[in-house]
Amino acid sequence: MKRQHPKSLKRVRWLSLRDPEEVAQRACAHVLRCAARAVNERGRFSLVLAGGSTPASTYQRLARAAADWHHWQIYFSDERCLPPDNAERNSRMAQQTWLDRVTIPAENIHIIAAENEPEQGARAYASQVAAALPFDLVLLGLGNDGHTASLFPDQKHPASELVHAVRNAPKPPPERITLSIAALSRSREVLFLVTGRDKRDAVAAWQAGACLPAARIGPDAVVTVLLDADADPSRPF
Ligand code: 6PG
Description:
By secondary structure, the chain is an alpha/beta fold. The protein has helices at 6-11, 20-42, 56-63, 90-97, 118-132, 181-185, 200-207; strands at residues 12-16, 45-49, 72-76, 78-80, 135-140, 163-166, 176-179, 187-194, 222-227. Helix 7 links the parallel strand 8 (187-194) and strand 9. Helix 2 (20-42) crosses helix 3 (56-63). The longest helix is centred in the first third of the chain and has 23 residues, at 20-42. The model has no long low-confidence stretch (mean pLDDT 95). Bound molecules: 6-phosphogluconic acid.
């Protein structure tokens, strides 16, 4: 596998925490801090949400927080090509754990229209993303193969795109829509939430310099990875 540029590795800040609950607590605090700073400096906070299951406990904490929600703009790192009310949709998870419980205006929640052809949804979302850049904070997860969002290690996409259509994804469902490395990197900060023993090998490969999709996010963004003890290869298990 290709190696990362040595500069890339130095840019990432790794925080090894106790357990998934501490990761969620620190992630929630980080989002709220970032939001307060962005609203104070620019009158708005644009946040990209991670999909998958890891961020659910962070979103549940955010649902209990107090914030200037009407200044928040919500985007999604990726979406699975399923009907909008399908329980496997990343947007449904975020709505049920958080967005349906706070007063972020509906027009500020930019859901990816992923119920049709991925190419059609990708084109439509690209114009929304172009108008939003740069983001203030991007939240991402990490797959056990080093994928992030729906950017998978062996899939190539045009570098010029802000949003890709994905077919034959190795993680079901096969059809997805994802922000590109370029779009995810156009953020002031990027925060990865990584928990669980099954992520340990991907973290070790990333730290050893493997050019995984997660490792390619940057280089201008400040990248922080919150790990729990199970996902941290430097900790015994
Ligand atoms: C998805 C996600 C994907 C996810 C990782 C980790 O649609 O599945 O965008 O990138 O973040 O696969 O998933 P877990 O948090 O469920 O381990």
